[in-house]
Amino acid sequence: MIAKKKVAVSVGDLNGVGIEIALKAHEAIRSFCDPYYCISSSMLQQASALLHVDIPKDFNLLHVNGSFTVTPGVISASSGLYSYLSFLKAVQATQTQRVDALVTLPVHKEAWMRAGIPYKGHTDMLRNYFHHDAIMMLGCEKMYIALFTEHTPLKEVASAVTYDRLVAFFRDFIAATKADNIAVLGLNPHAGDNGVLGDEEKCIAQAIARVNSDCSTDVLHGPLVPDTAFTPQNREHFTYYIAMYHDQGLIPLKTLYFDESINVSLNLPIVRTSVDHGTAFDIAYRHIAKEASYLNAVAAAVTLLK
Amino acid sequence: MIAKKKVAVSVGDLNGVGIEIALKAHEAIRSFCDPYYCISSSMLQQASALLHVDIPKDFNLLHVNGSFTVTPGVISASSGLYSYLSFLKAVQATQTQRVDALVTLPVHKEAWMRAGIPYKGHTDMLRNYFHHDAIMMLGCEKMYIALFTEHTPLKEVASAVTYDRLVAFFRDFIAATKADNIAVLGLNPHAGDNGVLGDEEKCIAQAIARVNSDCSTDVLHGPLVPDTAFTPQNREHFTYYIAMYHDQGLIPLKTLYFDESINVSLNLPIVRTSVDHGTAFDIAYRHIAKEASYLNAVAAAVTLLK
To answer: Sign of the CA dihedral A231, A294, A154, B168?
Structure first.
């Protein structure tokens, strides 16, 4: 009998929906992996009391220091700090091979900021921690979207589109996914309409040509006109897309596959997956949060280990 | 018996799919309006010969001067100029009430540029011609998207988002559509996450509050987080969306409703609708262009006249 894979679960912002989802999905997840939840016994007891649910007996913990009063739906520095420490614990447990992979529940960016955490999110922290250019990819079996820029204000996106960064990103993405048919989006309306509506597509086209030449085959296709890239016809051709910015890729993904999508960090020394939703403060501790994305994230982590 | 409405049809770039669609859909359109095609007899004969189709006997023309050799799929100044003159003829015929409304077939932006036409597209020209802030809205019965910025390079979008322009746009849009439940998108990832990922949402929120206050009711909702604005749940709440930029609104629209969408110019003294696709040079004169969007555009023009 092959031992189940061990998965560290960081519990996310305890004022949000993460711990509720972890408790709700535990039985289902327990059937195909051994989860280790990064939280202290006392914080878990506080959350479960607020939820009026029992803590399962085999709910194994990796202890995280710290203590504060959980307040559903509230952005706070103390909750932000605890969510960071839970994540850090999970990263360390994975790095030291105490567990095999890491699944993260959602943190709140402003809570991290209030706690003085200098990262915009999990992927940003992992990139810094491992000194690797982690790639953020979201999606599900039907469609995966890799983000060339992630949590970048829209006004700063265009200046981040440079030849050298594109070539490095394309190479890393191909190496990490082994994908051989990838759609690359343009940046501007109509992919610039031959330069009339912006000219970053020239640089994207050059980077595509360079990497295709290195691969000796046309792995990358584009730059595609963004607004028609996700029509049913194009979705028949492509499963992997590289979007130039956050909403360019995540609007179509969430429009089509909102509940089932997950987040995968590629190009890192560890396997890390995540849910594709936020802390959902508006519905926290109300027993209505959906666990589909979390179940898919844990399943994907186990699959990626194979 | 009520006389049918007269509709001027500008034929678009003759090196593209426009004239093919017009000929193919003529019988269907003839049943509910009187179309007048803005093209010369000789240019029409050239196109129909290339298509190997007969010109219907009741294919009424509004003559447009000029002559060139049609070359399917080629961007050219002469074809760009002719498409502009066809459009201008249709605008003038509508303005002088020789016809009741205007439907446009697609032009090619680069061909216009090569011909020295100083507009980025039809809507841009209409704005200048009528000295009105025309609003570009695309969609179908299930979802309409108004574009706050249109054919703007991505790097210039953020600086166009100003309080005064937003307030004027919101007022014009509400007046033109009489809509009472409108979703307004944020600009940045996560709608800025309370300023962490960009701060234009403050200005959008202020403009929304101002216009809602003038309306004495919450007609406008937002700024919504862009990547979740088009989930099935949100689409149940909203039919009208205001997008801050082209691809933010047109990616989800074309992902969901590619073939059936049309383009409507709001806030003008004339009624003008258009197909929601481009010149499709790659399939021009190959008898595979679809006419659904054109049929919907003509039907919408007739409906808007009522």
So the answer is: positive
